[in-house]
Design a protein that fits this description.
Layout: E1 2-7, H1 13-23, E2 29-36, H2 42-49, E3 54-56, H3 65-78, E4 83-86, H4 95-100, E5 105-109, H5 124-133, E6 137-144, E7 154-161, H6 168-190
Parallel strand pairs: 1-2, 1-4, 2-3, 4-5
Antiparallel strand pairs: 5-6, 6-7
Length: 191
């Protein structure tokens, strides 16, 4: 059993998907902490509903960036974390943590990297860029996290066709279904 920390800022649908796969016995792991910068997120509500410990780390609660980084590192060490899964986490992971957990931090991106990735490419903005580019395919990428947004080594990708009638919203809906299928498979393979 691997100890998993999930980082999520928003709705947490990938967090929930991974958790459901663990509950079903499909992933030999345990989510031992949810870390978020958003105390009002659906991720936090879900974690509390399932008695998953939570930690809120943001600039409001911890204005000092060094203190935030130390608190985060301490929490991961204390929980004996084997794997970190980013699930819609909107903050850059501190370099010290990237180095300490090298090749043990996963992220899912709602497009095919290296295109449509990097700073500013998140949420609906990614799908708008895909539609505006006229790309015939989009998809999902799971990659290791390094010091740059959406840059680490690609682990798995799954492509989908962009239909002529797709909008950014309909494309996002299609991609999310693929995310919920691919991410748990990668987490299972890691575990």
């Amino acid at each position: 059993m691997k100890n998993i920390a999930v980082f999520s800022s928003g709705g947490g649908s990938n967090f929930k998907s991974i958790h459901r796969h663990i509950q079903a016995g499909e992933i030999p792991g345990l989510i031992i902490i949810l870390i978020s910068n958003n105390s009002d997120s659906d991720s936090i509500k879900y974690a509390k509903e399932y008695n998953i410990p939570t930690l809120i780390i943001n600039k409001i609660r911890y204005p000092n960036p060094v203190a935030r980084e130390e608190l985060l590192t301490e929490a991961l060490i204390k929980k004996n974390v084997d794997l970190i899964c980013l699930a819609g986490y909107m903050k850059l992971i501190p370099q010290s943590i990237v180095h300490k957990y090298q090749n043990r931090i996963l992220n899912i991106h709602p497009a095919l990297l290296p295109q449509f990735g990097g700073k500013g490419f998140y949420g609906i903005k990614v799908h708008e860029a895909v539609i505006q580019s006229g790309a015939e395919v989009s998809g999902v990428t799971v990659h290791f996290v390094d010091e740059d947004y959406d840059h680490g080594k690609i682990i798995a990708q799954k492509k989908i066709k962009v239909r002529p009638e797709d909008t950014a919203i309909t494309l996002a809906e299609q991609v999310l279904k693929v995310e919920h299928d691919l991410y748990p498979k990668v987490v299972k393979a890691f575990c």
